[in-house]
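Supplementary notes (optional reading)

For those who missed the lab, this is the record we used. Protein: DUF2252 domain-containing protein. Length: 484 residues.
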Amino acid sequence: MTIFADNRHNRTKEVHFMVKELDLTELHVNHDVKTLHQNGKSRRDKVPFAHLGVYKVSTRDANEAIKRVEAALIPELIPMRHQRMAASAFAFFRGTAEVMAGDMVHQTRSKINVVASGDAHIGNFGFYASPERRLLFDLNDFDEAGVNSFEFDLKRLLVSIVLAGEANQFKDSKLIKLVERASEVYQFGINKAMSFNTLDRFYVSSEIHELFREMQVDAEPIAFVQPIIKKAMQHNSERVVDKFTTTDALGHVMFRDVPPKSIHVTDETYKAIETGINDYRQTTRPDVNLLLSNYHVTDIIRHSVGVGSFGTRCYLVLFTSNDNSHLVLQVKEALPTREFILPDKKRITLAQEIDEGQRIIDAQRILQKASDPFLGHFNLNDHSYYVRQFRDMKESIDLTTLDWQNFKLYAQACAYLLALSHAQSPTVPTIQGYIGNKAEFNTAMSEWTAEYVNQVKQDYQNFVEALANHQFEPVTPTTDNPDN
């Protein structure tokens, strides 16, 4: 166990690193910044930018990879999951992290590793509250997080920029230029981070106005985020209760059923999750654990969200305090990272899933500038879960509503934030030495992105055709209990 003093929260931040899934030993550095920077420059000879820009086509069936993941999901939710993925090539890309993870195994890598998001597409950034109730903008999904080459995250972001932009009917020529610009902003972010000392990098803020100021963006262009900020500020547990619950004849507050997306769990599952919540409390900070002693569980519902994670075991837990106020926590199943699902595996075994929740919250605490104080995890019936607040000052930007100017700004903000997240790893001087301010690096990223976008579109077309031809057979549940 490693303990960090986190003065951003004025609290001690306890992070449990597990050896198997989030082994940080390879990120430890024993050289000064100058040496690390030079090592990065020397790496260009071993891994030229041009090699990073070549997409190496791998022989695989994307639909088979999707089926392997879906074998671990709740069968009755698969049709709705398919419907969401079929909405667009971007939606398909969001829902198939396993496909790109498998493809990246065959690509040239810089082998300059960081703690990586693993799924840093443009839709996985959003607003949330710091413990001090300041509204931050940052990465907000870490299900695929682990140690990986820094360009994996960057490439996934750049591909998503093109796909999301095409969904908005923006011209391809503009989007490819934006990809190069976003890569350039990532460079700028790495160089900006390296202008700070080590502690200042750790304390850097992602408060939205400060973020754009660091990016040297005028205040006027960020006016489009003001309605989103206002909406996010209104999100809290009581608003969730108003929206998601009803009151029965006895005056008890309970969640609404909206099958199959949202349904109440069996008594057996209810009791099991209550037990899991007790275990979860032991993984939270002492102050949060004490706070939770004011509450008791009053309802639990299975509530599926997202695209890629739609179909996992995901629950909302309603807590009622002794003063009759409420707290809503989300309990979300933590599957192994998609790259762990190898071609010869037909399903995720239960033993493989244990402790994945810890990996996810550890990565979230590292990559976010401040994190939800209610983060924690537990294992239940051979499954791993992580816990967080539900919709507490959380809000995402609807990309389909953005005009071209605001879409450009948003994409660049995501690239800048990705750089700041990567800068939490001690290898950031090596990244800086490797990419420098070289336009050739951005050209390579753009070339790879253009090729891979074509691959995604082909995979998407194959997926839509397979659905039309009923080639996705019902999957076998991995458990006898549909709630678990």
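If you only remember one thing from this example: The chain has a mean pLDDT of 84.
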